[in-house]
Amino acid sequence: MLTLEHVQTARQFLADADEEFAAGDVLQACEKMWGAATHAVIAVAQRRGWRYGGHREMKVAVERLAREHDDPSLNAGFSVAEKFHANFYHGFMEPFQMDTDRDLVRNFVARVLILAE
Q: What is the pTM of this model?
């Protein structure tokens, strides 16, 4: 996949997550939130020639971005996306957490996509 395709996929996954939350398919919506975050990270990593093949490599890429831009909210946003990913498997998040945390992931994705372009 090319960088632009990852950008488009990240945006599409956010839209898909909104539809799935509205339809009550919380687990799939959570995984789409995670997918949006990871595709955004892949886009910026590709653009910069960084490794992104695994979870740890993506986390390192986010840490590099956070340091480069003196923006610790990037690390926090990725951590929230990881929480959605874990929720897909374990279903531990309360509805109020998902409502609040969705905005954090949306903001993370938007910020990373700006850095990818």
A: 0.95
